[in-house]
Amino acid sequence: MNPLNNDRLIDAFVTTPALAELFSDASVLGAMLDFEAALATVEGRAGVIPAGAADVIARAARDADLPHADMAAFLRDTRRSATPAVPLVSLLVERVRAIDPAAAAYVHWGATSQDVVDTALVLLLKRVRPSLQDDYDALTAALQRLSNAHASTVMVGRTLLQPATPITFGLKAAVWFAGVWEGWWRLRSALDYAGRVQFGGASGTRAALGSDGPGIAAALAVELDLEPSPPWHTRRGRLADVASACAILSGALGKIARDVALLMQAEVGEVAASGGGSSAMPHKRNPAEAAVALAAAERVPGLVSGLLTGLVHEHERAIGGWQLEWSALSATIQATGAALSAVASTIGGLDVFPARMRANLDATRGAVFSERATLLLRAAVGRGAAAAIVERALARSRDESITFGDALRADADAVRALGDGIDAVERLDEDVAAAETLRRELLES
Amino acid sequence: MNPLNNDRLIDAFVTTPALAELFSDASVLGAMLDFEAALATVEGRAGVIPAGAADVIARAARDADLPHADMAAFLRDTRRSATPAVPLVSLLVERVRAIDPAAAAYVHWGATSQDVVDTALVLLLKRVRPSLQDDYDALTAALQRLSNAHASTVMVGRTLLQPATPITFGLKAAVWFAGVWEGWWRLRSALDYAGRVQFGGASGTRAALGSDGPGIAAALAVELDLEPSPPWHTRRGRLADVASACAILSGALGKIARDVALLMQAEVGEVAASGGGSSAMPHKRNPAEAAVALAAAERVPGLVSGLLTGLVHEHERAIGGWQLEWSALSATIQATGAALSAVASTIGGLDVFPARMRANLDATRGAVFSERATLLLRAAVGRGAAAAIVERALARSRDESITFGDALRADADAVRALGDGIDAVERLDEDVAAAETLRRELLES
Amino acid sequence: MNPLNNDRLIDAFVTTPALAELFSDASVLGAMLDFEAALATVEGRAGVIPAGAADVIARAARDADLPHADMAAFLRDTRRSATPAVPLVSLLVERVRAIDPAAAAYVHWGATSQDVVDTALVLLLKRVRPSLQDDYDALTAALQRLSNAHASTVMVGRTLLQPATPITFGLKAAVWFAGVWEGWWRLRSALDYAGRVQFGGASGTRAALGSDGPGIAAALAVELDLEPSPPWHTRRGRLADVASACAILSGALGKIARDVALLMQAEVGEVAASGGGSSAMPHKRNPAEAAVALAAAERVPGLVSGLLTGLVHEHERAIGGWQLEWSALSATIQATGAALSAVASTIGGLDVFPARMRANLDATRGAVFSERATLLLRAAVGRGAAAAIVERALARSRDESITFGDALRADADAVRALGDGIDAVERLDEDVAAAETLRRELLES
Amino acid sequence: MNPLNNDRLIDAFVTTPALAELFSDASVLGAMLDFEAALATVEGRAGVIPAGAADVIARAARDADLPHADMAAFLRDTRRSATPAVPLVSLLVERVRAIDPAAAAYVHWGATSQDVVDTALVLLLKRVRPSLQDDYDALTAALQRLSNAHASTVMVGRTLLQPATPITFGLKAAVWFAGVWEGWWRLRSALDYAGRVQFGGASGTRAALGSDGPGIAAALAVELDLEPSPPWHTRRGRLADVASACAILSGALGKIARDVALLMQAEVGEVAASGGGSSAMPHKRNPAEAAVALAAAERVPGLVSGLLTGLVHEHERAIGGWQLEWSALSATIQATGAALSAVASTIGGLDVFPARMRANLDATRGAVFSERATLLLRAAVGRGAAAAIVERALARSRDESITFGDALRADADAVRALGDGIDAVERLDEDVAAAETLRRELLES
Asked: Of B441, D123, D187, D280, which one has the fewest beta carbons inside 10 Å?
């Protein structure tokens, strides 16, 4: 099958080539056929179906040419029956019949649509982490490298987009790292937890196999390298959990992307991503990958809410809530992967400008030390007097274009209150040391 | 370009073949090239660029072979620059150069990425209504037909899934019709309102064209058969409005789908859609298209919330909020179209069983008339006494398996209170007449 | 009733005191009682119920003391019956009985829960626009004032947070204005369109009133100053439309808030809102109201998606989809109002610093003119040569800290290509003029 | 403080009295004051502030009368500064000053707004599980009881709302149980994982406390009985995780509510909840609590998507994404609790009608055995022949109103193929046994 157009232009920012391939027709059909092959194999082994038939089915499933020419018909039948299992079984029966007509009787033996559809999804989910691993490894390695390299690179901490107190860029990168690390850990756990075989038969009781049901279910899990499980036809929390974990990881990636875009502003100029060009303006270095990451991250929460809404499955198989999962979950994962890929690339090539960070800090003329000054003064002269002195010094610093420290040193009350300690107000080493403690803690998490 | 895989299996329930084609690479690239051709044409006509160059560009854009072989590279560059305009312009420049190197200077003259990307989207939006029109016409015609045919087919009205008072199936179909009609009207308005050219240049001022800017923008709108507009680079309300309208239409379609699925329950049995089969159970007639419609309808609200979240565009062009629109809006429209197609097919082939409707009504043993009885009794004996009589009659009806009317007629207080009027309690003709008035009103809306 | 705690701290950023009051218990109960009073009045007038009873009911409804002490019981009964109509009717019956026991028979005559609940909601919706009008008027007036005052205040246009080409602050304010104006227009239309009486009786047929149904429904609309309508028990598109319109307006407000916050960054410094203080740092001027607006705007899309999901109403009255509307729609409106109030206050007190805008523009050293240079050069020497010259000049400008114009003038190829026209590259007056044309167009919209 | 109106009518279906109280002004202010008291206490103990001042502050915080009369002013200041910490600190300073003016200097020492706001939220989160525990215990106990009582109560399994194969009501109740159990386990884990102190100071470095920072942070966690943590000012994954877990639990509850409503339909009649009344129809028993649960469950996903969207926190403290959390997370939890309470009550009082379940099964005339017949026949005569026989028997069963088993027994091909085994087709004991195996497995999970 020509996978060319699985990676569609209209969705360029919400997938990656690798993930588009993972959820391509070839891959999805392959996963469904893997289920049918494994089912026949374990049923043949257990004597539930004839061993010869099992071999034929497994072989036909594994060798099956995919219905390139007939994909439109396959899709039409999928929509008509609200499940791809119906045309899939027809396809496989046809292939089996061509080899051994008698074996066709045993295709999909004792299984239901949801067994093959859900297990195929789980088999695809197992391939998600490997698909993302390289980008994750590259990103976290780059973040650790950045953090270590800038352990003592001082910059302005910013809250509500305003200067707060000094931090280090090493700490900022460590915070980014910790967010991604936590998100990845959540996603890994969720994917592991979701990796369970689905095998329940028509109404989820496996009754068609009688007393063989539990044994076949267990063997099927082993054959497919999945965890065993009672049927989960209508308990979809684990899939929703994968989606939520994607959203949490996307959020951590979006945070990095937005921070990078903010730091790259011409007026800030503290970092530069190897940016995208413009179709109109030759001078531009756009934070293009940050834009892609943000677009992907903004897409995910709505997809998750669709999946969460769909959790209300009716009776023994849902009408609507189940059928939306394939598209919603694959779109969620693809968008998350797009964000991860874009952020990994951006961080991998990030230029950092410590001098500009220092210049922006200095441009506050020491206003970032007003908290420390306030605490020192409060201890000496009380809350109200401290506030008055600091207020006065800040105004003087602004009006006379001197530093806040100089303004304090020019204030008799401040000098009287703080004495020699007045110079401690501006001690950046305290900020750096405090940041370093936390930086190490975060990187070790 | 081979459009085969634009209609992907993983997304089978949230698009249609026609809409997958509308948002295919060939279609999207074609719309972008249409913009470039039209821009060159009007700029040539106005003397902003040489007429000869304009002709070459327009011709190259219209004849351009699409980059089948290089689509992967096109996508890579799209992601790298966070816009398909960058590789698109490169592609067009290359084609133009092959014809007339000098003309290449005038490709994309005075335009910016967002001009071509947004206008291409709007050109695609113009094709949405025609793509949906057949299904809409078929659905509304079928609903009108059903409504007229069953103007006096009595059935149980159900509130909170419990029997309420009698209605007609004709009224129910008219309510369905009115919902779809309103949703369609909203979507049409929103699509019309969104059909505006985007042409603002680098920062949305058209300054690169100097005093020619307004004229070129106006001519471009005419050339592309779009409405003129000041640039709307960061005012995206009209696109969000299209998405919201899709969601409202999807909701109306989902309502029909759920009602059909409920009416098709074996225990209710009032309608039957020509259902989908099962991979396990030969006896099943699944409301498969209803399931597809519900899956699509459940997907749309989350996509809309993504678009609404993205409305917060930064400064003169957004980072993230803009880049997510193509995928989110196209997915919204595709899912809506999938729901429309599925519901149109279901309603077009719906079997209705009036006898079963009547049987289910009769099975309530007249409890559905308790409201009318209560009002008649209240007027005669007051609120408390009326409630006591009705309560008694309902209990007797249940306990003795007689009708509520008979139970009333066996109640001395009821007889005393209502006299001959007691038979009016069960007058279905009043229910039918009341339903008919509203049915006509709704169909004429 | 003490409305104190209707404005809850936990929800402080997603409502306003006025809107918390509008959706307070007193207000909601009052709207339901208004429905009951009007219903009795028109039914009395039409002879459907005795005129005397109608008077008593209307009087009792209007004079009713609200159940302060029993609000907990009222809520318990509301939850138990899944509708506030049940305890409301009990309450009113009790009050009517105290005046005239016989009149109690006619309370809520021919109506159903959904009639009173939906009409009460619509009556509250009618008060939404007046509640918001002052903030809207103040905001749009301030935006027009800002735009006019800064018609020729030049600043950097920014795309993807990077410098693009010059614009004016007057244009930026006009774009803000146009977004708010459009959003308001959508919300007004949606509110007007939703302002329809609900009156359908038990199953939406008005059958309980027989042939009087249509007349009573029409008179009720007049009495309540609402539009007449066939029942819309399960057609909720108009309510969803109000919510979507809120989201679109919120998005326009969020865009302003984010722009303001970005412009207020210390390193940008182009505007200052009269900011919020900090609990730790005396030097801080936080864009506090922008934060509140953004929090509210981010909340709305998810609320809208809940309402859109709920559109799938079952049969003649929904189970779940209907019951969620009161909270979801009131929360949507409150958050929108919170954003409007915060942005109106921020813009009303905004300080603008034209000198800083100019300085930031100058700090690009003319790179913002690279688009114009490119077009002029392309016309003279073709695409490739033009790109090379511009690239060279940009590099020289960066490396030698000279302006882009000077770099061009020092480039022999550029001088040869452009001759005297070389100075036109830096003509800000063209940018201002282009911006001014659009500014006027947007303000007149 | 009069907590009366914290439980608002407009939000009646999306909270409970207990949760409305948990997120009431009194409770929220109390949690913030607990933080300030604990902070002063541990700082006093460590000698960071004078021990005497610490005592005064802790006492003032614990004894503080809440600002009943001034709540409107408190809210105004909260909105003005985009944080309740600013008026909270003012309030506490005032109370401390009244006791000991000098101690006021040490209020909120070294902390920032986000420290008190986030820690207060976490303190409230700690009370969530206890608030929900009774309903959870009651619900799971009732589900286990129902499941055990109906281990052999046979009913129709239903997929896509159509009859599938037989199951037991015991299994259905066990599936409900497993969904709730899993959801609760996820929520507990998420709440535990989120239970970490926030203490980072102005920019999250704790620099104001110098080398005392880590020790104070650790002691504060102990004092408040929370887990220690590096500051998580911008890493909000754990809060999003709580919200997602709420949505997953709500989905499991919504599934039960919808199943109950479907089983309560008059035509199905397999269960009855002690239902709500109607304002119009005395005969109605509405599944009112199921409606409340569904309304709450439909609300949650959109709230979650808001929180997930808000994860993109800027720099060292977000503008918008942080400020929306209080309302979004408290609304999420309240809606989840409302669903839990409603479902617990519904299941606690559920009547089950085994005879009706059996009758509905019998009404399929054995069509539910078509899967088993098909498998038995396939093994005997191959796929095509088996399908033909079953198709024929199903048609005959329908046309002649005989059971599917009788139709098979009347079919010569079927008899030839199956011999004596033909009666095995209808063996319900196999269905019951298969269901029982899974039922036990699910209850033991």
From this structure: B441
| A157: helix, strand or coil | strand
> Is C251 within 8 Å of B236 when comparing Cβ atoms?
yes
User: Would you state the structure tokens that stand for residue D26, as one six-digit string?
Assistant: 């009194």
Residues in chain C with CB shorter than 8 Å from the CB of D11 are 326-327, 330-331
Considering only CB atoms, C158 lies closest to which of B161, B316, B433, namely B316
Q: Are B154 and B213 in contact (CB under 8 A)?
A: no
Counted residue by residue, chain B has a size of: 445
The distance of A4 to chain D (nearest Cα, Å) reads 32
CB contacts of A189 in chain D (<8 Å) are none
Annotated catalytic residue within A278, A305, A327, A445 = A278
Q: What is the pLDDT of residues D336-364, one digit of tens each?
A: 999 999 999 999 999 999 999 999 999 99
Is D283 within 8 Å of B367 when comparing Cβ atoms? yes
The answer to whether B281 contacts D309, with C-beta atoms less than 8 Å apart, is: no
* pLDDT tens by residue, C288-336: 999 999 999 999 999 999 999 999 999 999 999 999 999 999 999 999 9
Beta strands at C154-159 and C162-168: parallel, antiparallel or unpaired = antiparallel
CB within 8 Å: C305 and D304: no
Strands C154-159 and B351-352: unpaired
| Cβ within 8 Å, pair B251-C241 | no
> Which residue, among B311, B369, B431, B440, would best test binding to C if mutated, counting the most C CBs under 10 Å from its CB?
B311
Contact D275, D252 (CB under 8 A): no
Q: Which of B275, B284, B394 minimises the CB distance to D282?
A: B394
The predicted pLDDT at position D6 comes to 79
**3 state SS of C168:** strand
B272 by Cβ neighbours in 10 Å (0-12 / 13-18 / 19+) ranks as middle
Q: What DSSP line would sit under A60-90, residue for residue?
A: HHHHPPP-TTTHHHHHHHHHHHTSTHHHHHH
**Average pLDDT of the residues of chain B:** 95
Asked if residues D137 and D31 have their Cβ atoms less than 8 Å apart, the reply is no
Task: Identify the CA nearest to C408 among candidates C400, C398, C397, C227.
Answer: C397
CB atoms < 10 A from the CB of D395, how many?
11
Q: Do D312 and A251 touch (CB under 8 A)?
A: yes
Per the CB < 8 A criterion, the answer to whether B256 and B343 are in contact is yes
Q: Which residues of C are catalytic?
A: 278, 317
> Are A391 and C282 spatial neighbours (Cβ–Cβ below 8 Å)?
yes
Q: How many beta-carbon contacts under 8 Å exist across B and C?
A: 317
Amino acid at B307: L
> Tokens 């009156």 appear where?
C199
pLDDT in tens, B310-353: 999 999 999 999 999 999 999 999 999 999 999 999 999 999 99
Interface predicted TM-score (ipTM) over 0.90: yes
